[in-house]
Specification:
The chain has a domain of 117 residues: 2-Layer Sandwich (Alpha-Beta Plaits), CATH 3.30.70.1590. The radius of gyration is 58 Å and the shape is flat. The chain has a 3-stranded antiparallel β-sheet, covered by helices on one side. 92% of the residues lie in helices and 1% in strands. It has 1227 residues and is mainly α. A hairpin with a 3-residue loop joins strand 1 and strand 2. The protein starts with a helix and ends with a strand. Pfam families: IQ, Myosin_tail_1. Its main location: cytoplasm.
Length: 1227
């Protein structure tokens, strides 16, 4: 504990030294204490009286330095961060002001006004955008066309490869002369199928053209309907947008309300926490009062003892005359005690002074808070004035709107007198420019003031922005009113006078508002200074509170640790007592077990001879078991030796524990019987296993010979079967290759025809789209020309003067928009003001609550101090009264103490003897336990060996059964192989006959080959025609290739099915003569499969057309969804901006609340620090009291010694005892 607590005095020593004693010495050397004031032991450090307080003071000083350094660093970091933020804010304000100046200069430029009026009427930019879109579409179409050309080239290369492969196949056909009769018949059938398919293709092409025409008509109708639907959808979407905006506003308001509720709940939680802490402190005060009551009870008890001792004093009055000489020493001790009392009284006076100072500081803070609240009320009154001014400005705006409406009625008369008004307009413009120069100078002054008041920018920016907005709106309205006055002829003089009057009033109002703003800025600066001072004072108080809280926590932790250590020591005592009782019980039981083991050892020695004879008969078959038995015999010999040694020790204990050993002997006999039964069972099982092993070895040898014979026969049969299978596979491969070639040719024909159709349809579609695009381009160009003409006409009209109506309407719209903006800004300002008022009220409530809590705590502390003072006074009075009474009782206690020490020494000697005897008994018990464990392990090993032997027997039986099954299976396989061999011989003869027949057929096939060559030439011509068609329609080759791949997959699946059938035919090769019949059947099936494939392909074409229509619909739907999503994205972006603004506002609110919370925390910490200081002083007073008590004890001891010497007649005086030392644990 010592190194961990005082580690802060020398941290390097604790980190380097693992030994706590050395760490303690290093820490004490670093603290600068004299070596005579402390001593370090192995586990504790001993101090003289009062040295521990010096150590605590050193530790507190070091902690205070560290905390001040940390606080200074944190404050420096925060101030740097705040300075950086203010610099960035200053730069941002300069940029905003510069942009506003530029806008104010540009606003009055006539060409800019003209551009603002003409800009919404121009459609040139829109036409250019449409042209750009059309150009992008054309570029995309060009890219698609280039891609299709690349695909066409790739397909041509593929086609060339296919032609090369075809030539290779033809060369193979010429080179190989085999079974061509079947191939020729299949080719004829395929040609017939080809002609049928071509007729069907022509029919389907006609149908496709008709369906495409119908689809185009439907597509045009669909476009018209989609246009109408899009118009309706736009209306619906506009309505939805308005609804969504309303919902978003509602959601934002709900979010603000929730945030405010969350803040209220958080503050309620903080209040609950503070109340809980208050309750805890009250409970601690109650505990202290209870402890004080206990001390008072002790004092009362001591008073009773004093009354008893006074009776004895009456008897000893004769001896008091002899002890008059010793009164001088007692008086000296009494003077010392009185000096200590004076010191404690001075400490109490210091505490009272501190209390009075704290009360004065609290009163000062209350006054400052009251002044702040008064200033806040003044600010609220100023805000009310500003609101009134805003309302007056709104009323003025309404009056100006009414005047604008009156001016519109006089619009017809204004056209006649335009020339006269132009001069007056110029004069008014010059006056307005002068007013604008005055406003710019005022803006520069405001900038300087803002630079001076950088800390108040956040609060002033909102008010400045609102005032500037109102001024800008009024200027705009005034300019619009002046421009409209030029159009009014009849009421010119009246309106001019009104304008001058309004101008004067507005100028006066502006000056008043500026003066009010200046006053607000000054008042805010003064308030900020006061708030800073209060914040510093609050920070100081909070720091003191923190220190007091820390000291309180440290004392509480020390108290808890001491209570925990006390509980642990009590538990350890109880555990030690329970262990002693358990050891005594174990000792008794082990003595009984010793006698039982002796008897067992005698009986086992007798039975060992019989067991050795039995095990010798089984040595040849079971070497492992013999080794285990030998180990057991050795262990038993060791046990016997140990038993012979232990007999001498056991005789001492036998007389004491014979009565208890009788009950245990019956259990050991039962265990012995069980072991004998198990041994007998093990011997029987071992004999049975040996017999089974011998029988299994014989069967194993017989089966091995039989298996070798069967393997030889199997090898012969497999060699014959493999040869036959190889021949059959060669024939099957040849037939499969020819089938694959024919199927590939058919698939290529179908694929090429489909490609031609697809390419033709795509060409028609692309031509139509191209023509439509050209028509659209021409229409757009016409519209561009018309729009350009219209723009020119409009510009001419504007130059001639027909812009007045448009200008008036635009001015009206602008005024309405500005009015709405001003109303919204006013509402926002009112809401912000309300929020600030609520915050001020909350802060006042929180301040009052904190003040009340601090007052309560101070009152509680004062009560505690008064109670402690009273208790100290009572204790001192009682101690003075009991000192004389206890002096006599202590002499008698010393005599009793000597007697008890002598008894304790005798008991310790007896305890040492008993402990030695106990240690020897425990050693013998451990030996017997180890012997028992060895015997148990040997028995367990025997049981394991027996279980392993059983498992091996079961495994060998299973193997024997499996070998018998394999024998039977091998015999059946042999018989089957013989049958297959005979069948293969018969099939070989039949194959030779078929070969002769095929040689005869080869001649006929050569003639058929010539015919096929002529047909191939015709096919070449057809292929050339197809190639020409493919070149014209290779734009959709990819889709055709995909379909061809699918068809190829289907054909391969069918081929796999045929191969499976042929494999089944191999398995059933009993009748090779029926092969031709089955081949004819397979060809018929193939023809049927070809028709089915054609039907499937037609269905696939229909499905693809349906999918095309569905994809077109999906494309249209996707475009609609895209438009909706774009609108939704715009809405979401707008909503996100609003959310971001709301978030920034709420973040500002959160920052302000956090700052308030930090200030409150600082206040609480300072109050806690003050409480901790008061507690430290209280504890110092307690320590001084304890020291005074120790001195009183020393004085009492001196008095007793003097009395003893006086009784003996000696006049010598004893020296004072050595100073006491307090132990502190190192770990």
């Amino acid at each position: 504990m010592f190194p961990f607590r005082y580690k802060i005095l020398n941290p390097t020593a604790v980190s380097k030294e693992p030994d706590p004693k050395k760490c303690a010495t290093h820490i004490l050397e670093a603290s600068g204490l004299d070596s005579e004031l402390y001593r370090t032991g192995h586990t504790k450090v001993f101090f003289r009286a009062g040295v521990l307080g010096q150590m605590e003071e050193l530790r507190d000083d070091r902690l205070g330095k560290i905390m001040t350094w940390l606080q200074s660093w944190v404050r420096g970091y925060l101030s740097r961060k705040e300075f950086k933020r203010l610099q960035e804010q200053r730069l941002a304000l300069q940029v905003v002001q510069r942009n506003l100046r530029k806008y104010l200069k540009l606003r009055t430029w006539p060409w800019y006004k003209l551009w603002q009026k003409v800009k919404p009427l121009l459609n040139v930019t829109r036409v250019e955008d449409e042209i750009k879109k059309l150009e992008e579409k054309a570029a995309k179409a060009q890219e698609a066309f280039e891609r299709e050309e690349k695909a066409k080239k790739e397909l041509e290369a593929l086609y060339a490869k296919l032609l090369a492969e075809k030539t290779d196949l033809l060369s193979q056909l010429e080179s190989e002369k085999g079974s061509f009769g079947d191939v020729q018949e299949r080719a004829n059938k395929l040609q017939a199928q080809k002609s049928d398919l071509e007729s069907q293709l022509s029919e389907t092409q006609d149908r496709l053209t008709q369906e495409e025409d119908a689809r185009n008509q439907l597509f045009q109708q669909k476009k018209k309907l989609e246009q109408e639907i899009s118009g309706f959808k736009k209306d619906v979407e506009d309505l939805e947008l308005s609804v969504q905006k309303a919902e978003q506003d509602r959601a934002s308001k709900d979010h603000q309300i929730r945030n405010l509720n969350d803040e209220i709940a958080h503050q309620d939680e903080l209040i609950n926490k503070l109340n809980k802490e208050k309750k805890l402190q009250g409970e601690n005060g109650q505990k202290l009062s209870e402890e004080l009551q206990a001390a008072e009870d002790k004092v009362n008890h001591l008073n009773k003892v004093k009354a008893k001792l006074e009776q004895t004093l009456d008897e000893l009055e004769d001896s008091l005359e002899r002890e008059k000489k010793l009164r001088g020493d007692v008086e000296k001790a009494k003077r010392k005690v009185e000096g200590d009392l004076k010191l404690t009284q001075e400490a109490v006076a210091d505490l009272e002074r501190n209390k009075k100072e704290l009360e004065q500081t609290i009163q000062r803070k209350d006054k400052e808070i009251s002044s702040l609240s008064a200033k806040l009320e003044d600010e609220q009154s100023v805000v009310g004035k500003v609101q009134k001014q805003i309302k007056e400005l709104q009323a003025r705006i309404e009056e100006l709107e009414e005047e604008v409406e009156a001016e519109r009625q006089a619009r017809a008369k204004a056209e006649k007198q335009r020339a006269d008004l132009a001069r007056e307009l110029e004069e008014l413009g010059e006056r307005l420019e002068e007013a604008g120069g005055a406003t710019s100078a005022q803006i520069e002054l405001n900038k300087k003031r803002e630079a001076e008041l950088a800390k108040l920018r956040r609060d002033l920016e909102e008010t400045n922005i609102q005032h500037e907005g109102t001024l800008a709106a009024l200027r705009k309205k005034h300019n619009d009113a002046v421009s409209e006055m030029g159009e009014q002829i009849d009421q010119l003089n009246k309106l001019k006078a009104k304008a001058e009057r309004d101008r004067g009033t507005i100028y006066n109002e502006l000056q008043q508002t500026r003066g009010a703003v200046d006053l607000i800025g000054r008042e805010k600066a003064a308030q900020e200074k006061i708030s800073k001072q209060l914040g510093q004072q609050l920070n100081d108080v909070q720091g003191k509170l923190d220190e007091t809280n820390r000291t309180l926590n440290d004392f509480d932790a020390a108290k808890k640790k001491l209570s925990i250590e006390n509980g642990d020591l009590l538990r350890q005592l109880e555990e030690a007592e329970s262990q002693v009782s358990q050891l005594s019980k174990i000792k008794v039981s082990l003595t009984t077990q010793l006698e039982d083991t002796k008897r067992l050892a005698d009986e086992e020695a007798r039975e060992r001879a019989t067991l050795l004879g039995k095990f010798r008969n089984l040595e040849h078959d079971l070497d492992n078991i013999r080794e285990q038995i030998e180990e057991e015999a050795e262990a038993k010999a060791d046990i016997q030796r140990q038993l012979s040694k232990a007999n001498a020790d056991a005789q001492l204990w036998r007389s004491k524990y014979e009565s208890e050993g009788v009950a245990r002997s019956e259990e050991l006999e039962e265990a012995k019987r069980k072991l004998q039964a198990r041994l007998a069972e093990a011997e029987e099982t071992i004999e049975a296993l040996n017999q089974k092993v011998v029988a299994l070895e014989k069967t194993k040898q017989r089966l091995a010979t039989e298996v070798e014979d069967l393997q030889l026969e199997c090898d012969r049969a497999t060699a014959i079967a493999n040869a036959a299978e190889k021949k059959q596979k060669a024939f099957d491969k040849i037939i499969g290759e020819w089938k694959l070639k024919v199927d590939d040719l058919a698939a290529e024909l179908d694929a090429s025809q489909k490609e031609c159709r697809n390419y033709s349809t795509e060409l028609f579609r692309l031509k139509g789209a191209y023509e439509e695009g050209q028509e659209q381009l021409e229409g757009v160009r016409r519209e561009n020309k018309n729009l350009a003409d219209e723009v020119k006409d409009l510009l001419d009209q504007i130059g001639e003067g027909g812009r007045n109506i448009h200008e008036i309407e635009k001015a009206r719209k602008r005024l309405e928009a500005e009015k709405d903006e001003l109303q919204a800004a006013l509402e926002e300002a009112e809401a912000a003001l309300e929020q600030e008022e609520n915050k001020v009220l909350r802060s006042q409530l929180e301040l009052s609550q904190v003040r009340q809590e601090i007052d309560r705590r101070i009152q509680e502390k004062e009560e505690e101090f008064e109670n402690t003072r009273k208790n100290h006074q009572r204790a001192l009075d009682s101690m003075q009264a009991s000192l004389e009474a206890e002096a006599k009782g202590k002499a008698e206690a010393l005599r009793m103490k000597k007697k008890l020490e002598a008894d304790i020494n005798e008991l310790e000697i007896a305890l040492d003897h008993a402990n030695k005897a106990n240690a020897e008994a425990q050693k013998t018990i451990k030996r017997y336990q180890q012997q028992l464990k060895d015997t148990q392990t040997a028995l367990e090993e025997e049981q394991r060996a027996r279980d392993e032997a059983r498992e091996q027997l079961g495994i060998s039986e299973r193997r024997a059964n499996a070998l018998q099954n394999e024998l039977e299976e091998s015999r059946t396989l042999l018989e089957q192989a013989d049958r297959a061999r005979r069948q293969a011989e018969q099939e070989l003869g039949d194959a030779h006959e078929q070969l002769n027949e095929l040689a005869a057929q080869s001649a006929s096939l050569s003639a058929a080959k010539r015919k096929l060559e002529g047909e191939l030439q015709t096919l070449h011509a057809d292929l050339d025609e197809l190639l020409n068609e493919a070149k014209n329609s290779e734009e959709k080759a990819k889709k055709a290739m995909v379909d061809a791949a699918r068809l190829a997959d289907e054909l391969r699946a069918e081929q796999d099915h045929a191969q499976t059938q042929e494999k089944l035919r191999k398995a059933l090769e009993t009748q090779i003569k029926d092969l031709q019949v089955r081949l004819d059947e397979a060809e018929a099936n193939a023809l049927k499969g070809g028709k089915k494939a054609i039907a499937k392909l037609e269905q696939r074409v229909r499905e693809l057309e349906n999918e095309l229509d569905g994809e077109q619909r999906r494309h249209a739907d996707a475009q609609k969804n895209l438009r909706k999503s774009e609108r939704r994205i715009k809405e979401l972006s707008f909503q996100a901006e609003e959310d971001r603004k709301n978030h920034e506002r709420m973040q500002d609110l959160v920052d302000k609340l956090q700052q308030k919370i930090k200030t409150y925390k600082r206040q609480i910490e300072e109050a806690e620090e003050i409480a901790a200081l008061n507690l430290a002083k209280f504890r110092k007073a307690q320590q001084e009291l304890e020291e005074a008590e120790e001195r009183a004890d020393m004085a009492e001891q001196a008095i007793t010694k003097f009395r003893a010497k006086g009784r003996s007649g000696s006049a010598a005086r004893g020296a004072s005892p050595a100073p006491t030392r307090k132990p502190i644990a190192l770990d």
